[in-house]
């Protein structure tokens, strides 16, 4: 006999727990199902652990630069990777355990551990249990993609989850994939003391970004001693002693890179393959992402998909925003939709990249008349005072309305400063409101008005 609930949430990642608790507060008898790790990718092998590791790596780098600030450190910096890992594990544990306590104490919420799969529309099986509800919310996230590379089945390799278990610094880490995840790990482990090589099939790093952003990031990473190989036409792997040899070009005589460890950072895929979606009439696209409308509703009545599994965002903050949209529309009389949100994300290398809205390339492709401005971080007093002048900030606006179209801030605190631009864009206000505001000195953000004073027609 089926157990009846008012709402079922599948997955305890970013959106799922908050939605389950909100449903419970609204008086709905709610079940939340998690098969493995509460907190999902962000808490367990994504944002929380990686940014904890990045903090340790930055501390090591700042210590090495002590002389730049007039300080003397007599002994060389020594990274104790086991202690670094232990610190990361403790931060993760606190986050995960706190989430579980929150759910266990939530009103009208039942926590169920196990693998969930649809057996019919709005009917879920978890082992021998059969659950039914008028509303079902899917928040199952994604996992690392495994590319089809010659020789991959014969060598050990790491992904963003497996690399979290390392308690020793690799002698030579070879990163396959020159995008966001790969570059964060590349810089992190270089700062921990490893030799690092990055292999990218494309002609430049993070091809989603404008060319000037990609090139500036390449220069920053190369400046720290990271070997970067672009245009890798034929990537193949081969066991070489206790390590792995990776070739990046076609031909029998192609030189190889011999590494102690290989990290695959070539994208992610949704965790939808074993959910029994067909039994519920839930449509996916060719890559397995669940198709949703502007309100996050799927093709099955009463079923919604939130977070990475819907292909409408690959970040913790987009997953949280999915929750906000669904909760507002269901419980607050809202009419929120996906199309209203402004694209925003960050690349957490050091210095970080903060990005909102359109790239310059996308603005040009749109054909709309636009103005643009660019300012090197060396012009920012706060950056000079901190001894961190790498990068630049740039912005584009509509030539007629002065609405902000997009911005990129690659530089110290760029991931925070860009939020000021995001708020103006979200409020649908022109860029002139930034110029009219009084900005605190000395900060990085105070240079935004100066940046806007340099607006010229976008070339």
Report how far the terminal alpha carbons are from each other.
Answer: 67 Å
- Number of domain units: 3
CA-atom Rg in angstroms: 24 Å
Q: Please report the number of helical segments.
A: 13
Largest sheet: 7 strands, mixed
Low-confidence blocks of residues = none
Q: What is the name of the CATH superfamily of the largest domain?
A: FAD/NAD(P)-binding domain
- The global form is globular
Q: Write down the CATH topology of the largest domain.
A: FAD/NAD(P)-binding domain
Report on this structure.
The protein is of the alpha/beta class. It folds into three domains: 3-143 and 269-340, FAD/NAD(P)-binding domain, CATH 3.50.50; 152-266, FAD/NAD(P)-binding domain (3-Layer(bba) Sandwich); 344-457, Enolase-like, domain 1 (2-Layer Sandwich), CATH 3.30.390.30. Helix content is 31%, strand content 24%. It is built from 13 helices and 22 strands. The protein has helices spanning 15-25, 40-45, 47-64, 81-104, 180-192, 211-223, 277-280, 316-331, 360-366, 381-386, 414-426, 432-436, 448-453, and strands at 3-10, 30-34, 109-113, 116-120, 123-126, 129-138, 142-144, 172-176, 195-199, 227-229, 236-240, 243-247, 256-259, 261-264, 268-270, 303-305, 344-347, 353-357, 370-376, 392-398, 404-410, 456-457. Strands 1, 2, 3, 4, 5, 6 and 16 form a seven-stranded mixed sheet that branches. A hairpin with a 5-residue loop joins strand 20 and strand 21. The longest helix has 24 residues, at 81-104. The termini are far apart.
